[in-house]
Structures are given as C-alpha cells and as structure tokens.
Amino acid sequence: MNSIIILLALGLAAVAAVPTNPQRIIGGSTTTIDRYPGIVSLLFTRNWSQWWQACGGNLLNQRSVLSAAHCTFGDQTGAWRLRVGSTWANSGGVVHQLNRIIHHPNYNRQTADSDLCILRSNTNIVLNNNVRPVNIAGSNYNLADNQPVWAAGWGATSLGGSNSEQFRHVQVWTINQNACVQRYRPINRAITANMLCSGVLDVGGRDQCQGDSGGPLLHNRVLVGVCSWGQYCADRRFPGVNVRVSRFTSWIQSNS
C-alpha cells in the first residue's frame, strides 16, 4: 500500500510501499464520528493477522467507499478492510471485508492525477447516526477561492509524528488554482484541473498529512475533495492537494 504522497525531496514523488509515518491532521483538534458519519477508517495488513488504520475513506452507500488510489494501488483486495462508525482509528465501530477495489482508469502514479478508487464491501454497511453516506459535489458545484473547508482523519499531527488514535478535524481554505500552480512549478510538480488545493497560504500550520490520504475535504458538508498529496505537511509555501470531486462525479456514481 502507499501512504499519502508527501514530497520530501524537490521534484521527487515519495511513494512508499508501506507507510512508515502514517499521516494525521495537523493544527486541528479532536472530534467525534457523529459529526462526520461519512468518514471511514481504511485498515491495511502486512502479515494477514493484524490490520491497522492507514488511510481514510468516504462512505458513498451501503456497499461503497471512495478513497485515494495511491493508498491501495498494487495491493491485494483482501489486504484492506473498512472500519465504520468509530471515533477511534483501530477500535470500535464495525469492520467490513472487501470484495473489490476499483481504481480510476486514468490514475497516474507519477503525477497523482485522477487519484481515486472505490472500495466495495463484502457485506451491507448498516446506517445509523455514526454511519451515513456523504453528499458528493456535482459536476457543476461552484467552489470559490478562499472558502472555509474542513479536513478530517486519523493522520499525523506533525510531519513524521505519532499517530492520532482519536479522530481529528481542521479548518483550512480553498486556494486559487493559479496560485497553487505557481507554488508547485519550481519543484516541477503539475497541478491539474482535477486537483483542488487547500491550506493557509504563506502561514501554514494546518493541513492533512500522511494517513489522512483518501479522507474528506468538506465544504458546507459536501465532499469537494479527497486527500491526495503535498510537499511536506502544513508548509506555508505549499498547499495540500486534493482530488477535485466535481471532476469525477459521473465516474463515482457509475462505479458505486
């Protein structure tokens, strides 16, 4: 499996086989799953006896979860499981096994473009106050610059820091596409129309990080982004980069 893509050297996309520093929300605070009932903890195993939280996901319906392709690409389906309805990364809620993982056909490991996958559960996911499908942005969803958005997950609270067992969230802001392009151009990283940048530009201190991959970026409770990659975490120069959900609405609906 591949953790959230964090670029630690100029121009190089760090794609680790297994996350040595599973990522967590930076600059936020703890919260509870009832406030984000659409988020899912994705569990991964190396040894087929223990599964641990490695990425986030977003519940689409009683069988399907949307996440980042780089999390699961190249892995056996059985190496992943879903934990729903828990504030805690590695306990509580209900765990479901998978029968299929669908990667977006245009996913590019080098550029991280179209970084989406859909995980299909073996069994129906029971809905309740802590388990509820997300609302996804439509293809014409209007998302302006400098809008407050919320990221959530169990990722690192600092770059290379320890795991957050308790669910966390943080408010960041959408960043102008051209501004994001300019920030990443010096290190030869392309920001495509399929990407959505977020953070606190020139300030930093708030962001998603490794282990938050696949988790949500929410605008007025609508899923507008899926956590994908970035240069470091919460860096004032480089925004976090998400998949822009509105560019993939049709594919998501067709495959969920």
Description:
This protein has two domains: 37-133 and 251-255, Trypsin-like serine proteases (Thrombin, subunit H, Beta Barrel), CATH 2.40.10; 135-247, Trypsin-like serine proteases (Thrombin, subunit H, Beta Barrel). The protein is built from three helices and 15 strands. The chain has helices at residues 69-72, 177-184, 249-255; strands at residues 5-7, 29-30, 39-44, 52-59, 64-67, 80-84, 94-103, 117-121, 135-136, 148-153, 168-174, 195-199, 216-219, 222-231, 240-244. Strands 10-11-12-15-14-13 form a six-stranded antiparallel barrel. It has a six-stranded antiparallel beta barrel with strand order 3-4-5-8-7-6. Strand 3 and strand 4 form a beta hairpin. It is globular, with a radius of gyration of 16 Å. Residues 3-24 have low confidence and may be disordered.
Structural class based on helices, strands and sheet pairing: mainly beta
Looking at CATH, the homologous superfamily of the largest domain is Trypsin-like serine proteases
Give unreliable regions as ranges.
3-24
Q: Tell me, briefly, the overall form.
A: globular
Side by side, the strands of the main sheet go: 10-11-12-15-14-13
CATH architecture designation of the largest domain: Beta Barrel
Helix fraction bin: under 10%
What CATH calls the topology of the largest domain is: Thrombin, subunit H
- Mean pLDDT across the residues is 89
| Alpha-carbon Rg, integer | 16 Å
What are its keywords?
Thrombin, subunit H; 2 domains; mainly beta; 6-stranded antiparallel barrel
